[in-house]
Input
Amino acid sequence: MNFNFELDSKGYLKRRESIDLEYKQNFHREEIAKYAKTIAGMANNKGGQIIFGVKDKPHIPMGMTNGKFRDFDPVTLEQFIRDYFSEEIHWSLDILPYAEKEFGRIIIEESNRKPIVCKKTKDNLLREAAVYYRYRGESREIGYSELRNILDKEREKERLLWMKHISAISLAGPQNIHLLNSHLGQLTIGDKQVVLDKQVLKEINFIKEGQFTELDGAPTLKLIGEIRSIDQEELTAVSIDVMYPNFTADLIRRLNLNSHELKCVVWKLELRRNPIYHAEVSLGPKSNSISKYSEQAVKHILDCMSSEVFITTCLEEYKASHPYKAPIRNRRNRIASSRNNLDR
Output
């Protein structure tokens, strides 16, 4: 996330405070609650930056006049955020040199899980159960429309994620799926469970007992309990013929369509762009690849064909998007014939 010290003719910063930017003259440890409120508000919106070293009204880049930002331990702010807010917030600190001066910066990422809610009251700055949101130039309790928008987007994200998971399970087969609960740190394999150390859930490297990681400090996986052995057959990828059992001819027969109708349907639904429905399969080292389709593709087409005008629509739109072009030889013949007529 970049910050540009672009000045106008008076030496003022051109960029004003906004939904993703706030200026401060100096960093003060006793104002950590204010910073946390701003951080939570930006994380609930689109993320942003707090820049230290900028004079307020007008915004002149003066640089920080003390060393408190450089000496500050970020663990203190991280612990405060964890104590007072419901979700993890990703942020970082750095120092920006400009015109032989130092500027501090806190970078806040947009949260993947919204809304972030305040867990307890702090003086007159933070209120229990409040949701803070970054508006233009200020962080305050969220309004109805913004909260409604957040909740609608979270619901849509969850819906799409469920669709993705269900499609993956359907494609691979439920017997080939194992579950990792990253919240509880549990990996389910058959009827057994592996408990994962929460400190390594973000970055997991598996090692065998009695071995060491190749790099000092690399994250490892702590296994508690016994795991049943997994047969080699379980580790083998699902056959392409199982995942995509239908040739083009199969679709024509099962859907009662001719080859041109099927071509238009496949184009209209963009089946060849979606690995859930389609795969290119090579029959040999010297042969061209052929198309194969999954059972989900058949079901998807049948669902669409429940509309009486679907096939007609596919044919018309395909024709409009693929204007007929005469073969080159025929065009040349017509051109030659036209010239002959002119010569006559």
Q: What stands out?
A: The domain at 21-142 is CATH 3.30.950.30 (Methyltransferase, Cobalt-precorrin-4 Transmethylase; Domain 2). The CA atoms of residues 91 and 108 lie 4 Å apart. The chain has three domains: 21-142, 178-238, 240-321.
